[in-house]
Amino acid sequence: MSLPVFFASAPLSQVGEATELTGPEARHAVTVKRIGLGERIQLIDGAGRWAEIEVTETVGKDHLTGVVLNAGECERPEPYVIVVQALPKAERSELAVDLATQAGADEIIPWQAARCIAKWQGAKRSKGVQKWQSAAAAAAKQSRRVTVPEVWEPVSTAQLAQLIDGHTAVVLHEEASQPLAQLAPEFSGTVFLIVGPEGGIGDDEVALLRSAGAQPVVLGPQVLRTASAAMVALSVIGAATSRWGG
Fold first, then answer.
1. pLDDT tens digit sequence for 66-81
2. How many C-beta atoms surround the C-beta of residue 37 within 10 A?
3. What does residue 202 show for φ and ψ, rounded to 5 degrees?
4. Which among 214, 188, 229, 166 is positioned nearest to 76, based on CA atoms?
5. Do the beta carbons of residue 233 and residue 243 sit within 8 Å?
6. Which of 6, 45, 56, 43 shows the shortest CA–CA distance to 27?
7. If pLDDT is split at 50, 70 and 90, which confidence band does 2 have?
8. Can you give the pTM of this predicted structure?
9. Residue 6 to residues 31, 51, 52, 104, 134: CA-CA distances in angstroms?
10. What is the 3-state secondary structure (H, E, C) of the chain?
11. Which of 71, 151, 153, 206 is most deeply buried (CB count within 10 A of its CB)?
């Protein structure tokens, strides 16, 4: 069974050194998970570094100390997948980020597509990014990830076309003829995975993205909700490439 994961409250120590965990993460470890002396946990910094800790002491409800038994840093995934997620409806917004993070998204870009019902304007813009980043952190911790995907500022379709120009990019589209499963084994470097809104991607948007080099692809015969499409597509890519050890 994998070790419980907690975000480090201080820079990670080296093997053999003492370390401590304080604050909300320590409170969760001590009072919720009931972590005690001699048990092992994993601390992560969210940027790829990790340390396996053996607990040597707990102090109160929000402080524990331990010694580092093992430590390391994860390698950059190959291919490196950036999910471009059209803004879902409010009730599914953070679910989309949660599922994509669990499936391995390396970065997440909110996309204000033309047919999005949700509109991130004014204060909603920064609040939306913060909510997505929090959802990504929680999902990374739950799924035992060492890295937390960075959530970008939202982009328009024109900005997205500029971003993907010169890179490998695929856009999920129910009318596409090219299956993602056939294309995925060829992926390398950075790949942009573009997921449209519930109402679909407009023809003019598809044309603009294609002019920037994006390839329309289809997952299968079923039409998925926008909140779950990235998760399924990431699973296809993970199984077809070395991302999942293949």
1. 999 999 999 999 999 9
2. 11
3. -65, 150
4. 188
5. no
6. 6
7. confident
8. 0.92
9. 13, 10, 11, 18, 14
10. CCCCEEECCCCCCCCCCEEEEEHHHHHHHHHHCCCCCCCEEEEECEECEEEEEEEEEECCCCEEEEEEEEEEECCCCCCEEEEEEECCCHHHHHHHHHHHHHCCCCEEEEECCCCCCCCCCCHHHHHHHHHHHHHHHHHHHHCCCCECCEECCCECHHHHHHHHCCCEEEEECCCCCCEHHHHHHHCCCEEEEEECCCCCCCHHHHHHHHHCCCEEEECCCCCCCHHHHHHHHHHHHHHHCHHHCC
11. 151
- Please tell me the distance from the alpha carbon of residue 202 to that of residue 150, in angstroms, as a whole number: 27
Q: What percentage of the chain exceeds 70 in pLDDT?
A: 100
Taking only the tens place, the pLDDT of each residue in 129-142 is: 999 999 999 999 99
Token look-up 């999910």 returns: 83
Instruction: Go through the domains of the chain in sequence order and give each one's CATH number.
Output: 5-73 (2.40.240.20), 80-240 (3.40.1280.10)
What is each CA distance from 28 to 15, 46, 56, 61, 126, in whole angstroms?
24, 17, 17, 9, 28
How many whole angstroms separate alpha carbon 236 and alpha carbon 234? Answer: 5
Instruction: Indicate the length of the chain as a whole number.
Output: 246
